[in-house]
Write a structure and sequence with these properties.
The chain is mostly helical and 143 residues long. 48% of the residues lie in helices and 10% in strands.
């Protein structure tokens, strides 16, 4: 799942439980439902409006970093063996995993999604998309 800084889901991909997150990263980035802003022409404005992508240590692979840069994001991937103190020294955006975990918690409030009873992946994906629509409605429209 890919979420913005408020926890609103932007992209969701269903994979098998034994699939590593690294293998679904490119598909998740390609399935974003919102269109990205075109980059501005001036360098100063471009630096201000660059879109950052914070990932945790599980995505620390050169292939992932290359794919993220290729799609126009600035990757912020925490390195393995790196503590919180070294992140502050490098002027690096810290990963905010709690945003995604909070969005996962919002998904778990839907009883139909908590335990998967659907055999077809399409049916389950439809329910997940419906839950995402409700979450977006609650977060953006209702406030």
């Amino acid at each position: 799942m890919l979420a913005d800084k408020k926890g609103v889901p932007l992209s969701i991909v269903i994979t098998a439980a034994n699939t590593h997150d690294m293998k679904a990263t490119t598909e998740t980035l390609d399935c974003i439902v919102t269109k990205r802003r075109p980059p501005p022409t001036k360098k100063k404005k471009q630096q201000q409006q660059q879109q950052n992508l914070c990932l945790d240590k599980g995505y620390n692979y050169p292939e992932i970093e290359h794919e993220v840069v290729k799609r126009g994001y600035v990757p912020h991937i925490r390195q393995r063996g790196e503590g919180k103190k070294s992140v502050k020294k490098r002027r690096h955006h810290p990963t905010r995993r709690w945003v995604v975990e909070r969005t996962n918690s919002w998904h778990n409030r839907f009883r139909k999604l908590l335990v998967r009873y659907e055999k077809k992946a399409e049916n389950y994906l439809g329910l997940v998309h419906l839950a995402c629509c409700i979450i977006v409605y609650r977060r953006i429209i209702l406030g």
